[in-house]
Design a protein that fits this description.
- By secondary structure, the chain is mostly beta strands.
- It has a single domain (2-19, 30-178), classed as Jelly Rolls (Sandwich), CATH 2.60.120.10.
- The chain has helices at residues 32-36, 168-171, and strands at residues 2-5, 12-15, 19-21, 24-26, 46-52, 58-64, 72-78, 80-87, 98-104, 110-113, 117-123, 128-134, 143-145.
- Strand 1 (2-5) and strand 2 (12-15) form a beta hairpin.
- The longest helix is centred in the first third of the chain and has 5 residues, at 32-36.
- It starts with a strand and ends in a 12-residue tail after the last helix.
Length: 183
């Protein structure tokens, strides 16, 4: 597995090997022992799977606050997304900054989003499926969000976002400066 650190080095791209033949392919997408040797030692407790039927579905910016903060390992198994992680760790030199990567079924790349980051993705193709592992269970009392287009963060989504599809929660999320997150 190839590991690439992004501009905010705590956020990483993991590129599993993919072995194909006439039957299809095989890929080991997570190996706890191997990745622990690389300093990535996480215990995942829950897997999540989403389908976005339309292009332009934006989910996020989401996070879970302590004591139920979550690391996430995100992959796209059908379609293509622009994945974004925003540093919300108070006192961090990269607080309020973001990194992004295109994740797709074709490039077979995963993104590791650690605790202390808000996470979002925008679908770039119809019928996009995203699967992700998390290190803590969903906790409604710790669930939080930040407005996806907060001008203080200034995310460049790379496409026209005037017609994005959002949940009510995401439409009404607070700005980063008003979000209570505990990091």
């Amino acid at each position: 597995m190839i590991i690439e650190r992004l501009a905010i080095p705590e956020v990483m791209l993991l590129k599993p090997k993919k072995f194909g033949d006439s039957r299809g392919f095989f890929s080991e997408t997570w190996n706890k022992e191997l990745l622990a040797k690389e300093g990535i030692d996480l215990d995942f407790v829950q897997d999540n799977h989403s389908l976005s039927v339309e292009t332009g579905v934006l989910r996020g910016l989401h996070f879970q606050s302590p004591p139920h903060a979550q690391d996430k390992l995100v992959r796209c198994t059908r379609g293509r997304i622009l994945d974004v992680a925003v540093d919300i760790r108070t006192g961090s030199p990269t607080y309020g900054q973001y990194v992004k990567a295109e994740i797709s079924a074709e490039n077979w790349t995963q993104i590791l989003v650690p605790k202390g980051f808000a996470h979002a993705f925008l679908t770039l193709e119809p019928n996009t499926e995203v699967q992700y592992k998390v290190t803590d269970y969903y906790s409604p009392e710790c669930d939080g969000s930040i407005l996806w287009n907060d001008p203080a963060i200034g995310i460049d989504w790379g496409v026209d976002t005037s017609g994005v599809t959002l949940s009510e929660k995401d439409k009404n999320a607070p700005l980063l400066k008003d979000a209570i997150h505990g990091f």
